[in-house]
Task: inverse folding
């Protein structure tokens, strides 16, 4: 799958952060959709089209980790990048063991996120 055809979905309860990541992803050629909550993403028609999911861990309702697990249980293995302002080594280790592509601590450098997204897209291209 070519990067310009890949759809990146961003799930974060912080609107300013969502829009910032959306602009960054569009600047490197990805189609990008944004969602304010895990439930909003799950209810959307974009789940099946998503090539890579970027989600915050700490959100009201359903966390990013819960969202990832729910997708796996439903048979949807979307390469996922977890982001957080509240890093926890045990959550990080478990998430990576469960198959999450990247775990990034906010704030992170733009190139870190772009590298994770490219690695995630490469993963589904194999």
Result:
């Amino acid at each position: 799958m070519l990067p310009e055809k890949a759809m990146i979905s961003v799930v974060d309860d912080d609107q300013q952060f969502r829009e910032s990541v959306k602009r960054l992803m569009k600047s490197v050629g990805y189609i990008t959709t944004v969602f304010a909550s895990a439930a909003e993403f799950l209810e959307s028609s974009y789940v099946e089209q998503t090539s890579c999911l970027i989600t915050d861990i700490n959100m009201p309702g359903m966390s990013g980790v819960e969202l990832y697990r729910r997708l796996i249980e439903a048979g949807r293995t979307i390469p996922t990048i977890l982001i957080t302002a509240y890093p926890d080594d045990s959550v990080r280790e478990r998430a990576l063991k469960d198959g999450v592509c990247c775990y990034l601590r906010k704030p992170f450098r733009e190139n870190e996120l772009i590298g994770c997204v490219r690695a995630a897209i490469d993963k589904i291209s194999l």
In short: The CA atoms of residues 71 and 77 lie 7 Å apart.
